[in-house]
Amino acid sequence: MSQPQPNDLSRSLTALDQDGTLIAVIEMSQSSWLVAGTVPGIERQPLKKLAPDEAALFRLLQRWQDEAARSGRTMARVTVAFEAGRDGFWLARWLRSRGIEAHVIHSTSVAISREHRRAKTDRLDTAMLMRVFLGWLRGERGHCRMVAVPTIEEEDARRPNREHESLVGERTRIINRMKSTLARLGIRGFKPELRKAPQHVEGLRTPEDTPIPPNTLDEFRRDLARLAMVREQIGAVEQARLGRLQEAPATDPHAMMRLLASIIGIGIETADMLVQEILCRNLRDRRAVARYAGLTGSPDESGSRRREKGLAKAGNARVRRGLIQLAWRFLMFQKDSALARWFRARTAGPEGARKTTMIVALARKLLIALWRMVMTGEIPEGVVLRQAA
User: Fold this and answer.
1) Phi, psi torsion values for 24, nearest 5 degrees
2) Under a CB-based contact definition with an 8 Å cutoff, are residues 23 and 132 in contact?
3) What's residue 115's pLDDT?
């Protein structure tokens, strides 16, 4: 029998003493929290609606502890769980700092009824959360999975990359909107992304040899100003990241980034995304790595029916998108690597697999190879590194 992994979040590794454990679950919303409890020594199942207030929650847990103590039970363990959502992880960190065992349930890991019109209320949701949380505490697999609660420093370290992604998307939207505006006027070939574009706007003419209409021109000027501001913010994020990397090059995340960026074809932006979003996580094996990125399959088997429904897409979408883009780039810059040769062998000839299908398999293999590289220092076979400056 295999030993459970120390970071296995699919079940609790602590034996449950139900007579000495206060168990609570929270159904959280923007306007209120509904707290359900299982209190030893009390037959009723307490249910309390609170305003979103952590101090009131703490007082409620203490009151339930006092009720259990009056019935002759000693609470050696207080454990609380709630679903991952808009509120993030701050409440779990706050509760843990006060000696309460707090867990965050992965929302998609909770099985729900498949009835066409099922009843759904906060009361029913708390009852469902209590059932799956009790099963998890007993150490049984399949009830639910917990999310690893990051520290506030780990959450903050992901912000630059995510902000950069958002700003790049905003830059693309502004440019596309400006090009669409010009196309409606019959003007083609103008590139608003160029830095000298504002100097040439006044000279633009429609096919009828008329200038851009005044309202459209004013909108165009505002879009150009917005584009300049977004471009400036992108540069500020990139410079701040490089500054932090130079200040502390030997820390674990920065050392991983420098190692990945030493591979020809991988830049600082991609390395930062991979390290902060997945490689810094304490994932137990290569299957967990691929599963977190959503690059595993989703088979559909029933009786004699066997089919594959494609990628599960249940993991981190940022990692998945970035890896598929990286896989195409890897084929360009690392043509002699073992992974690139494997891809070409699988897609060569009329009987070869489709490249768009096999690129996902290459992305999965590449992710596992990079994970092994940062964990053990093993360089993927045939990969060319940049020469040290």
Assistant:
1) -135, 145
2) no
3) 82
Which pair of structure tokens corresponds to residue 342?
């494997």
For residue 280, the tally of other CB atoms under 10 A from its CB is 17
**Residue 268 tokens, joined:** 């600082």
Pair (73, 159) in one structural domain? no
Cβ–Cβ under 8 Å, residues 284 and 291: no
Q: How many domains does the chain have?
A: 3
Structure-block tokens of residue 232:
């400036």
Torsion of CA 94, 98, 99, 101, to 10 degrees: -20
Residue range of the domain that includes 141: 18-149
Smallest Cα–Cα separation from 175: which of 216, 124, 230, 126?
230
Residues near 206 by beta carbon (within 8 Å), at least 6 away in sequence: 185, 186, 187, 212
Q: Is the dihedral of CA 315, 321, 322, 324 positive or negative?
A: positive
Q: Is residue 387 part of a domain?
A: no
Q: What is the mean pLDDT of each run of 10 residues along the chain (389 residues)?
A: 58 88 94 94 90 95 93 92 92 95 91 83 91 93 90 92 95 95 90 89 89 92 94 95 87 90 93 93 87 86 82 85 95 95 91 88 95 92 84
Model pTM score: 0.84
Domain boundary pick from 247, 267, 301: 247
Which residue type does 342 have?
W
Which residue matches tokens 């997945």? Answer: 278
Q: Report which of 305, 292, 301, 240 is spatially closest to residue 268, judged by C-alpha positions.
A: 240
Angle at which helix 355-376 crosses helix 338-347, to 10 degrees, equals 160
Q: Is 9 within the bounds of a domain?
A: no
